[in-house]
UniProtKB/TrEMBL annotation:
It is found in: Secreted, Extracellular space, Extracellular matrix. Promotes matrix assembly and cell adhesiveness. Plays a role in spinal cord formation by regulating the proliferation and differentiation of neural stem cells. PROSITE patterns: LCCL, VWFA. Residues 40-133 form the LCCL domain. Residues 145-221 are annotated as: Disordered. One of its GO terms (molecular function) is glycosaminoglycan binding. This is Vitrin. Gene3D superfamilies: LCCL-like domain (2.170.130.20), von Willebrand factor, type A domain (3.40.50.410). Keywords: Disulfide bond, Extracellular matrix, Glycoprotein, Neurogenesis, Repeat, Secreted, Signal. Residues 1-26 form the signal peptide. GO terms for biological process: extracellular matrix organization; positive regulation of cell-substrate adhesion; spinal cord development. It comes from Canis lupus familiaris. Residues 148-160, 175-216 have a biased composition (Polar residues). Its main location: secreted. The gene is VIT.
Amino acid sequence: MGIVVLTMKASVIEMFLVLLVTGIHSNKDTTKKIKRPKFNVPQINCDVKAGKIINPEFVVKCPAGCQDPKYHVYGTDIYASYSSVCGAAIHSGVLDNSGGKIVVRKVAGQSGYKGSYSNGIQSLSLPRWRESFIVSEGKPQKDVTYPSALTYSSSKSPTAKTGEATKAYQKPSVPGTTAQPVTLMQVTGATASEASHTSLPKPSPSAVSTTSSLRSQPMGHRSWELDLWSTSSDASGQNSPRANAGEMDLWKPGSVLLDAGFVPKEELSTQSLEPVSQGDPNCKIDLSFLIDGSSGIGKRRFRIQKQFLADVAQTLDIGPAGPLMGVVQYGDNPAAQFNLRTHMNSRDLKTAIEKITQRGGLSNAGRAISYVTKNFFSKANGNRGGAPNVAVVIVDGWPTDKVEEASRFARESGINIFFITIEGATENEKQYVTEPNFSNKAVCRTNGFYSLNVQSWFSLHKTVQPLVKRVCDTDRLACSKTCLNSADIGFVIDGSSSVGTGNFRTVLQFVANLSKEFEISDTDTRIGAVQYTYEQRLEFGFDDYNTKSDILNAIKRVGYWSGGTSTGAAINYALEQLFKKSKPNKRKLMILITDGRSYDDVRIPAMVAHHKGVITYAIGVAWAAQDELEVIATHPANDHSFFVDEFDHLYKFVPKVIQSICTEFNSQPRN
């Protein structure tokens, strides 16, 4: 009996060993069959913004076709998280328009983001934003684990599918708190009653207070905790807490619980408000477009013209710190569609452009230029004074009136005129053109910089970038008013016996040295001169010479007169014979040089000069009376009168006089 029992036990042990060995081999085979899952790169759409993705670092695949102005990008190299991820990748040069894989890493928010044009994308400027990101080539680092599925800060994930499982985002733990997983629920097709069963735990007061202290809340944004525990009216009209000790009020489809209150409301809203750019400070201009609304242009080409304006507005990055833009449409008569201050960002401007309707009539561009010169660039219409004035005239074919005189007046008023001529006259059509070579007669300068000839309306869009580059190149806007190109300057020179021949030549050299500093032409600064003793003589007037070399030669030819010193009579003579012929849009500067006290009264003539808007600088040499210089000079006298002890020291005062002229000019409105 005992033998049988031992045999059975041995059999049981043997079977156990067989099963054990078999299990081990089985596990080995199973282990061999298990393969490491392949990493799937998440795909996103062109419009996905970095701020919508919670993950701090991730790899994504962008589709083709993201090189589009509607996918906005803010910044250069470091981008605001409100930017399109794929648009930023193209702008930075990591991707092209065919798409591909990229690595995105979140970084701290910046105090400012500078827009730029790169790789076919115009990024916008932004004063500040709470979060940034950088983009690099899609080669994952070995020591970094990238998510195979992205976590979004909105319930509507751009790549989510119906019925997709809920994902939880584990917030990094903070000392003194307990990290709680934040559940992002994908509610698809759920009704309000179904969603009412959903409840979330109320955060503990300690966790709320500690978390809130981590980072200050942006002005104007309430934290998630404040929203959560604020009151709302219930069905009975009474105010009731939105959450009690154990549960939260109905979490409606589309709402989301976010990272401890640091996501502002624009991220929560399904209709997010886009941050408004302050404009590109590197292109601070006041710009007027004169668009052709004549009947001959037709509806289709008028739409193309409007699209061109919208593209320019988008590329310019409109804003109060950058370029401002208004539109005037002309036909028989011009009319302002909106002025410089009407729309202060590119988005609103594009919307307004879309609403413009065609006026019809002739193509009277000359009349439109006159209108813009007299009415458009005013302070009431948003002209800032410190920004160059630019007018871009678009003409279909050729104008039906003359533009030369109107354009001359515009140039003299400090307006930089550009002409875009589309489908210009052929050789057979030139006989019908009202004013031959009208474009060169209109533009600021005839060096080709201000003229763009477009062969076809369908290629007008190619002109956007060249035009924007030119109008923003403020150093080359030669017709802008400056202290050196916008005055009629009359020199009133003492030729009395006390001066002497040698010193008179020194005075003339001083006059020449001052004149050299100015930009001289018939539309820029003009120079005239009067010599006086007891009598007065007009040496040359404002209209006599319009080049710098001619002016310098005219100064050399002035002969010394000799005689007494009647300064008061000389001022009256200069007002009548010189400044009476000054142009109304020119600043009138009188520079009087004398070496002694006047034999006649200077007070009344000086008051008349001031009353007529003539800015007078009095320069006294040797025996000149200081009190008389102060009476002659425009107020404040300290800025407009100078005393030189010797004729040979006159040259030292050239930069001082120029500085005074420019300081006075820059303190006044430019238009």
